[in-house]
Amino acid sequence: MAAKSAQQTLDRSGPATRLGRLRSSFSTLGADALLVSHLPNIRYLCGFSGSAGLLLVEASAATLFTDSRYTFQAKEEVSGARVQITKHGLLAAVSGTLRGRRGRLRVGFPAGSVTVAQKEALVAAAGSRVRWVSDGSLVEKLRAVKDAGELAKMSEAARLISKVFRRTLGSIKPGITELELAAKIEYGIKHLGGEGSSFETIVASGPRSAWAHARPTSKPLRKRELVVLDQGAILCGYCSDMTRTVFVGRATPRVRGLYEAVLDAQQAAKAVIRPGITAGDVDRAARQVLKRSNLARYFTHSTGHGLGLEVHEMPRIGRGDRTILQEGMVLTVEPGVYLEGLGGIRIEDDVVVTARGAVDLTDAPREFLEL
């Protein structure tokens, strides 16, 4: 609830407001309109959650193009845009609409998600009066800062995955396989009302826990092993992402020391988070702690990433990243160390950037658990 109350003054919710903010950014591209093809961006702007759609946003109107499979769904979900059900392809419908506009047009398009073939088809069908320009990731930049409604949903998604982890702890024992444990996590997500997993659940034990993105296998858990559990839930379209590392049996002093170093690094990274600092500052804070413990070389990925309708969004919390953090951004903070032959340790939480610093959304226990 703290995260929600911190955002009460930020009134950016609803498709009409989001479309208005997007239109106000057209001038940065010198664009008259924007074609949106990435489905999470379409959902963000007009509410449509189907698997086929294009959204054309113009200065005074927006049109969602989809097919007849989504006639009723679009009528139920879409706000702020007119729905056009197409019969001869989405690209053809968009091109036909643009051909009907007067004068020359500059239209932004998502260069990162439109294929070469799709771009060529648009150019050929829309005609020479339309000039296509890169959209500059305008929608992704808007999505990086969450409104109060989004924060409320993300808080619930974070609480859900934290609860799933607590319920799963009793199953972490010798003999259960990584796949069985992953299945219990994914069942727990849906049993508690989640739509599904944000990504393929990671359960990695023993030496395999040193694989940062290991897929679960039929390997059974054994005594005196580290177990990394990276899990996330989708709720109301929004993702959570949390990692915990536990030990089966009694750990050695070395393993306990490694865990404390990673936890200290995570806390140091959280401590510097506030509006106005760079994403690279957060990454550097975590690495400095691990460097003092001579563990920096075992930290092989970035410290975190943005989170929202997708599990990886802007900004990237990585080395040297100059993105300025803003109030309302939701980030993961997930330092880790990975030692061949011994295993890996990663601790990850979701936090929201507020005026007073980072506020945790995930609340599962972070202390070292020996099970």
- In CATH's first tier, which class of the largest domain applies? Alpha Beta
Give the domain tally.
Answer: 2
Q: What structural class do the secondary elements suggest?
A: alpha+beta
Strand content: 15-25%
Backbone CA Rg: 23 Å
Question: Biggest sheet: strands side by side, in what order?
Answer: 4-3-2-1-5-6
Shape: elongated
Number of helices: 12
What is the CATH fold-level name of the largest domain?
A: Creatine Amidinohydrolase
Percent of residues in helices comes to 25-40%
Q: Tell me the distance between the termini.
A: 31 Å
Q: What's the CATH architecture of the largest domain?
A: Alpha-Beta Complex
The low-confidence parts are 1-11
The CATH H-level homologous superfamily of the largest domain: Creatinase/methionine aminopeptidase superfamily
Rounded mean pLDDT score: 94
β-strand number: 20
Q: Largest sheet, described in full?
A: 6 strands, mixed
What this model shows, in words?
The protein is α+β, with helices and mostly antiparallel strands and 371 residues long. The protein folds into two domains: 2-143, Creatinase/prolidase N-terminal domain (Creatine Amidinohydrolase, Chain A, domain 1, 3-Layer(aba) Sandwich), CATH 3.40.350; 148-370, Creatinase/methionine aminopeptidase superfamily (Creatine Amidinohydrolase). The protein has twelve helices and 20 strands. The protein has helices at 2-5, 15-24, 26-29, 39-46, 71-77, 90-99, 116-126, 138-143, 148-168, 178-191, 253-272, 279-292; strands at 33-36, 54-58, 62-67, 82-86, 105-109, 130-134, 196-197, 202-205, 225-231, 233-235, 238-239, 242-248, 304-306, 313-317, 330-333, 336-339, 343-346, 349-354, 357-360, 369-370. The strands form six sheets. Strands 4-3-2-1-5-6 form a six-stranded mixed beta sheet, sandwiched between helices. Strands 8-9-12-20 form a four-stranded mixed beta sheet, covered by helices on one side. A three-stranded antiparallel beta sheet has the order 7-10-11. Helix 7 (116-126) links the parallel strand 5 and strand 6. Helix 9 (148-168) packs across helix 10 (178-191). Mean pLDDT is 94; it is low at 1-11.
